[in-house]
């Protein structure tokens, strides 16, 4: 399958790139700074792109079958980058008649707030308030689209290997409150063509 990954230089995006090329997909990785992205493969194309600039998104979508969006990060300096970038990507997808999109947000967004421990809810409403508000409006944009979307809400992200032994569902309570970025990427790729996940916001955790 031809897959484009926005936010490919982030932890989850990079894992998705590695696993997708290993599985034989043709992958286009969109990154803002190619000098910080060293992944190489015969079936990998790296494009420099800014999701706040619609014309650069359109170029990345040419010939694609599915879109993965994993935007945002601790060092992101663009305000509301998740919302703005996702809105631009969704609009470009509609124009290009590409329907499948999987979007990584976070556990604690939307109706998953009750899944988050009280202590972390305090942090969400204080230190991480702007970041979570951005993800809230990002999810609203995804839900408002007429595309075949899946929202993926990981619990606390950590580095580690693929286990494939995670919980995934719309209303599940985490047992450990964490998940490796590699396993989030595994879920994304495993559900590229799974119509049962269309129109759902899925928590992925251990």
Ordered list of secondary-structure elements with their pairings:
Elements: E1 2-6, H1 11-22, E2 26-31, E3 44-48, H2 54-60, E4 66-69, H3 81-96, E5 100-104, H4 118-124, H5 129-144, E6 148-154, E7 156-158, E8 167-169, E9 178-180, H6 181-190, E10 200-205
Fill in the keyword field for this structure:
10 strands; eight-stranded mixed sheet; Rossmann fold; 206 residues; two-stranded parallel sheet
Descriptive report:
It is built from 6 helices and 10 strands; from the N terminus they run βαββαβαβααββββαβ. With 206 residues, the chain is α/β, with parallel strands linked by helices. The protein has one domain: 3-Layer(aba) Sandwich (Rossmann fold), CATH 3.40.50.720. The strands form 2 sheets. The protein has an 8-stranded mixed β-sheet, sandwiched between helices. Strands 7-9 form a two-stranded parallel sheet. β1, α1 and β2 form a beta-alpha-beta unit. The chain is globular. The chain starts with a strand and ends with a strand.
The proportion of strand residues reads 15-25%
Give the H and E element order. Answer: EHEEHEHEHHEEEEHE
* Structural class based on helices, strands and sheet pairing: alpha/beta
Mean pLDDT, rounded to whole units? 91
Head-to-tail CA distance between termini: 28 Å
């Amino acid at each position: 399958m031809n897959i484009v990954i926005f936010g490919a230089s982030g932890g989850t995006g990079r894992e998705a790139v590695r696993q997708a090329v290993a599985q034989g997909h043709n992958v286009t990785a969109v990154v803002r700074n190619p000098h910080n992205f060293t992944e190489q493969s015969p079936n990998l194309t790296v494009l420099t792109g800014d999701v706040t600039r619609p014309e650069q998104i359109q170029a990345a979508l040419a010939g694609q079958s599915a879109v993965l969006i994993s935007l945002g990060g601790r060092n992101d300096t663009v305000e509301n980058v998740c919302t703005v970038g996702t809105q631009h990507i969704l609009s470009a997808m509609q124009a290009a008649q590409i329907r499948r999109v999987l979007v990584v947000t976070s556990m604690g967004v939307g109706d998953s707030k009750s899944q988050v421990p009280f202590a972390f809810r305090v942090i969400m409403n204080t230190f991480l308030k702007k970041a979570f508000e951005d993800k809230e409006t990002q999810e609203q944009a995804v839900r408002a689209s007429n595309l075949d979307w899946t929202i993926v809400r990981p619990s606390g992200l950590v580095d580690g290997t693929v286990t494939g032994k995670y919980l995934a569902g719309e209303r599940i309570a985490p047992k450990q409150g964490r998940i490796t970025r590699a396993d989030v990427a595994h879920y994304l790729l495993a559900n590229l063509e799974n119509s049962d996940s269309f129109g759902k916001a899925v928590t992925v955790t251990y």
